[in-house]
Amino acid sequence: MMKRFLLGAALAAIAQAAPAQEAPTRSILVLDGSGSMWGQIDGVAKITIAQEVVAGLLAELPASHEVGLTLYGHRRKGDCADIETVIAPGTDRAAVAAAVRAVKPKGKTPMTDAVKAAAEALRFTEEKATVILVSDGIETCNPDPCAAARALEETGVDFTAHVVGFDVTDPEALAQMQCLAEETGGTFRTAANADELVSALQAVAAAPEPEPAAPVEVLFRAVTRPGGTEIGSGLVWSLSGEGVSREGVNEASFEEALPPGSYRVVVTRLADEAGAEGTVTVQGAPLTVTLELPELLPAASLEAPESGMAGAEITVGWDGPGGGEDYIAVAAPDADEAAWETYAYVRDGNPLRVPLPSAEGAYELRYVMEGGRALARRAVTVTPVSATIEAPGPLLAGATVGIGWTGPDYEGDYLAVVEPGGDGWITYAYTRDGSPLPLRMPAEPGAYEIVYTMDQDARIIARLPVTVAAASFGVEAPATAPAGSVIEIPWTGPGHADDYIAITAPQAADGEWITYAYMRDGNPARLTMPGTPGTYEIRYVQGQNTKVRARAPIEVMAVGAAVRGPSAVTIGTRFTVEWDGPNGAGDYLTIVPPDAAEGDYGNYAYTRDGSPLAITAPTTPGSYELRYVADTTPLTVLARVPLTVEDAAVSLEAPSTAVAGEKITVTWEGPDAPSDYIAVGDAERLYITYSYTRDGSPLDLAVPEEPGAYEIRYVMDQGGKVLATLPLQVE
What does the alpha-carbon distance between residue 72 and residue 295 come to, in Å, rounded to a whole number? Predict the structure, then answer.
């Protein structure tokens, strides 16, 4: 009963230590968990006594008292860093009690550093902080507890350490503990048993609070922006906190002597009711508090009609700063001040054409300054807009029909075909193209809707249900046709601009083709056959969705060709070749290496130019093939013969020196291919002056105007290949 009575008294003292108007008491209990706490008093371990006393204390602690727990020496032997704040200050009594009960003493006695750790947990450099240390032995880690205590007192806002020496008889240990308490303004007590421990805790808890800190001079001021000029008039202030309440202070700035603590300050500018607020912590030194207000906004006004039709433009007259990014907005009345449904920049004129939203209702016109501040507002009502749609019948799949309509015809408005009740278009056409409006029907028959859609917000303002009927399709093809030939295919169907007749393999997927011809090019369609013989299929393909709507089989027959010409020619020379073959529109003869792919080509000539046909030999000697190539898909080689291209005998005779600007005579021998020439050049230029070999041998050749070292060259026109050279010195 005695122990219980003493605990109750201690708790009452703790409760009385904090005045009712102050913040809840916050403290941390620092408990010794070093190995010496296993020592016994009257047959009971000191740690057990401490656990029971602290548990009783916690059970009856007032609800407003926030307590934490720091332990040392409780985890590891011989470790001066074995310090842990296991419970931060709070009202969870059960957590603190459980942590105390769990202590198993093990290690050293770093009590000074433990007090420092508790102080830091209480933010002792910012707020009032109280630590209660319970220890049974001498400091074993920090060489100077007194110096550490002085440092805590000097750097803390209001730091106090109360110390209880539990079963301590060592004079040095007692001196350390007393110094630790006195240097921080705390109380030191000793206890030899459980009852004395309760009494000691009662004494330290009831230690008198230090004298209130002296008031601090605080200046309150406001500026127009970060780092801007101070506002000199037209402000109203309020200040509250720590028992202080000031309202309606009509001053540009004011000073107040305030006790340390936390305060809330609010300032309002009367001209535009712009405001700012902040929280300030007053400590020991005078300070200046600066609140920032936005710049005082310039005046603005709007002139506009009271209403307008949805989606239409209205004329708005305005007065305001006219900044390059300022705009007139239309927004919902309760929208953020920078929000908009539609807008127009004021830089585009005054008065200004401003579009209205696409949905009817009550809105607000706003002059919005760059930065998102609304300078002026004016109500505007958006009235409904309507449209009508008329469609002829019947409507055939894939066909383009004229749709009659009425409506606002705003820029970008369109008619569209959609699924019933839908809003995603299948086909569409812009209303700007008139009424009736050509509109293509879907490729598949079925139930649809034609809708009038406003470009703004894709808002649908009219719907017309329609039924699209299936169209008839057909193609007529001969049973056979020569490979690479062009045949005529009569067809039936809508004949839309992107519909086409195609030939492909019978098993090919829709949309695949070898060759094709558009319906827009006429009926019958002219279609080129593949170059490879075989079984194929002629198809009517609807371009809208590449669906095959009609098909007919056809057999493509092999065709022959032949080429006849010299077996050998000189490089670069032009020679004639006779040929036989289908003479398709793009068929040609070409000279290529024997291993060239069928689609490769070198020098070539079209068969449409007749037989015999002139063709130019390559400039590089070697073995080649002369081929007849049918312009089919893919290209097909119908005939080939070997061709040897031989090097030419080439020589030049000319003087080695010449006078600048004069002419010299050059005798030459060479292939004399069309446009071959004799030139004078240098290291940078293929030619400076030249004469064509078609002018004969010998020929006159102009000498460059500048003296220097040059070359006389035989140059093939084909590829600019140089076949022979002579040095020439121009003087």
Answer: 57
Q: In what order do the strands lie in the sheet with 235-241?
A: 244-249, 235-241, 261-269, 275-282
% of the chain surpassing 90 pLDDT: 56
Same structural domain, 251 and 226? yes
**What is the four-CA torsion angle of 310, 315, 321, 324, rounded to 10 degrees?**
70
Tokens representing 604?
């070539």
Q: What is the β-pairing status of strands 636-646 and 568-570? A: parallel
Q: Are strands 307-309 and 373-383 parallel, antiparallel or unpaired?
A: parallel
Share of the chain above pLDDT 70, in %: 95
CA–CA distance, 450 with 465 (Å, rounded to integer): 6
Domain shared by 393 and 530, yes or no: no
Q: What's the rounded mean pLDDT across residues 512-520? A: 93
**374 Rama class: left (phi>0) / alpha (psi -120 to 50) / beta:** beta
Between 442 and 206, name the one with better pLDDT: 442
Q: What pLDDT band is residue 109 in, cutting at 50, 70 and 90?
A: confident
Burial of 682 (0-12, 13-18, 19+ CB in 10 A): middle
Same domain, 278 and 357: no
Question: Average pLDDT, whole number, for the chain?
Answer: 89
Residues 33 and 74 grouped into a single domain: yes
Q: What is the pLDDT of residues 161-179, one digit of tens each?
A: 889 988 888 888 888 888 9
Structure tokens at 398: 């894939």
Same-domain status, 196 and 82: yes
| Beta-carbon count within 10 A of 719 CB | 10
pTM of the model: 0.46
DSSP string, 565-617: --SEEETT-EEEEEEES---TT-EEEEE-TT--TT--SEEEEGGG-SSEEEEP
What is the domain extent for residue 478? 474-557
| The predicted structure's pLDDT at residue 208 | 53
Strand segments (E) across 613-707: 613-616, 622-630, 636-646, 651-653, 657-658, 663-669, 677-681, 689-692, 699-702
Which of 437, 434, 440, 431 is CA-nearest to residue 412? 431
Rounded Cα distance between 624 and 719, Å, is 18
